[in-house]
Amino acid sequence: MDRQSMIGLFLIGLVLIGYSIFTAPSQEELDAIQRRRDSVERVEASALKAKQQALASRAPAQSAVDTAVVDDSTRTARMNDLLGPFASASKGEDKIIVLENEDMKVSVSSLGGRIREVELKKYKTSAGKPVTLFDGDSTRFELNFFARNRIINTGELYYASTGQDLKVSAGDSATLSMRLYAGDTTKYIEYVYTISGQGYKLGFDVRFVGVQDIIASNTQYVELGWSQHLQPQEGDIVTERNNSTVYYMFADDDAEVESLSETSDDQDEIKTRLKWVSMKQQFFTQVLVAEDAFDKPTRISTVSGLETDTFVKAMKASFTLPYRHAPTEEVAMHFYLGPNHYQYLRAAGDHLEKQIPLGWGIFGWVNRFIVIPIFNFLNSFNWNYGLIILVLTLVIKLMLSPFTFKAYLSQAKMKVLRPEVEEIQGKHKEDPMKMQQEMMGLYRKAGVSPLGGCLPMLLQLPILIAMFRFFPQSIELRQESFLWAKDLSTYDSILDLPFHIWGYGDHVSLFTLLMTVSTLLITMVNSQSTMTNPQMKWMMYLMPIIFLGVFNNYSAGLSYYYFLANTISIGQQYLFRAFVDEDEIHRKIQENKKRPASQTKSKFQQRLEKMAKDRGYNMPK
């Protein structure tokens, strides 16, 4: 690896380190989050108090002795005043109906007709409990609209259902209807849930039947509100927060997917139609998909939990459902409630897999078309994931070996020319332009390109960056152990420190230590044969030490991969050295120098010669 290659790797390292530091919230941002949350809590508390006072003002005064509840007739009159035709739905029993298939268990509540809880049967939290989405009272799901000069919020009303718990087998499906009646049984708003025997899809249709004269005549849309506090599923809640946000896909573009910020509070009002919106966590996601599209606008927001909070993030989405006052209308949608598994999301359709951040541009292509297919093929053998990563590393290094060998040959040629290069550097150290002129003449005569080792290495960089994105997002590694690592998807702590070290953390990751040692070794091997600049050597030895802090909190699978890649690279260096005769290379270079120089010049050489001529120098022939 020559100097240019090492500089390239160092710059990429700086980019990764800068990204890690840049995305970490500052103390000012944390203070702003706290102020925002306090403000929201004050507003919500004020609204609740005002609502309670309004209800109290409508209730008859009670003496200290008479603590009996308001009689039914008074309560009925009050509810008729507040809710109009929906007054009868203001009281009822919170009944839970369970829809279950091979992969998930969905609990639907009669209060609001909403999904109250989703249990993913094949996954456990870091604490060993079932993974649950739509977790109880931490979520709200409701329609908001005007009906005869009243604001109706369906989340506070009781839906009726004649259904019962349903367990569906593979190949079958079942449907649950939840109806919110508006006065009589011919006028209602209906939620229809449909579940198949397997998978993580849940059909969800909203139907408006006979309410065209009840919903305000000037109403052109109904608002669907969805908000919840995402519950922690992993052991490291900080990492989980930094990988959780709202994703959405535009309906009128070519599957363009965007998201809110992962590392800070964010909100947006999308003024175009959307196909779906997801509340994504690190390894699980909840997506609401429109069969057609959600009308505009859609409002979304995220608020991060603080260190003292038990939730990951508070997320909200407000959808616009068109309403045309027809006797019967239906808005068809469905949920995906499951893991962020690339294959599952892709099979679910609607480009849901694009919410897995595999990297932009060429890095994402490498993951989608090279890394993931190879990984899935190896996974089909049901090996331990430590062995799968080992074989994956070997396959990738074998694919890249022609480029690695070419880089080594160029490195060997530069090593042979080093005495002559050092002679030129010493002779013209006071005149850098003359130095470059003489060196380019030497390279051209010898038939050596100074970029010969750099370009092959640059071709390998997309693989390195792609892996940086792939391993932390791979749910396949979640809770999979290897050697001392209990979970390859997070850091492998062998020692928890009683204090926090800035830039490093409060634990010691052994795979990160091994990666750092192997990086130092490969740097040492390369520097012995190529680098003569002391400043460059110091910089390249510093980079692995910086990486030690950056990767200490990253996926153990990622550090393990880089450790294996470094170890194999060191082995390749010694293998190539056994088959490459430097004396023969020197002999060929001396023969090349005796031949007439090629008249074909690169653009770089042409520009260098022009600069030299402008300063009064002549390039050697």
List the helices and strands and how they pair.
Layout: H1 3-23, H2 27-58, H3 72-83, E1 96-100, E2 104-109, E3 115-124, E4 130-133, E5 139-147, E6 150-153, E7 166-167, E8 173-182, E9 184-196, E10 201-209, E11 221-229, H4 237-241, E12 245-250, E13 257-259, E14 266-270, E15 274-280, E16 284-304, E17 313-322, E18 328-339, H5 342-348, H6 361-379, H7 385-427, H8 432-446, H9 454-470, E19 493-501, E20 505-509, H10 510-529, H11 534-550, H12 556-579, H13 582-594, H14 603-614
Parallel strand pairs: 1-7
Antiparallel strand pairs: 1-2, 2-3, 3-4, 5-6, 5-11, 8-9, 9-10, 10-18, 11-17, 12-13, 12-15, 14-16, 15-16, 16-17, 16-18, 19-20
Helix pairs in contact: 1-9, 1-11, 6-7, 6-9, 7-8, 7-9, 7-12, 7-13, 8-13, 8-14, 10-11, 10-12
